[in-house]
What we know:
By secondary structure, the protein is mainly beta. The protein contains one helix and eight strands.
Amino acid sequence: MRCPSFQRRRLSLERLxxxxxxxxxxxxxxxxxxxxxxxxxxxWIELHNELAIDLDVSRWRLSGGIDYQFTxxxxxxxxxxxxxxxxxxxxxVQTGFxxxxxxxxxxxxxxxxxxxxxxxxxx
Length: 123
């Protein structure tokens, strides 16, 4: 015997809009935009490869607030990092870090801080 208050309900599934799930591969890990000395040449962007395998970024471009095109054969190791500096030579002289790529071409705004909202990696 059924309880009188129990009613059968039909369950239905709601159809959702199509969604694309993309895997992150290369992310902006750190942006150094305001050196203590206010030297724009010491600004840099660090990218991180979140994959376990090497990532070939040949001919990829950073664009928007800056402009930089990666040269043929540029590889970011699996789990590794890559730094693109405004002035790699100046960064090396001032900090001792000599493993950066660049230089990138800044857009008309005076500092990277004011350009960070518009940097993208179109591929």
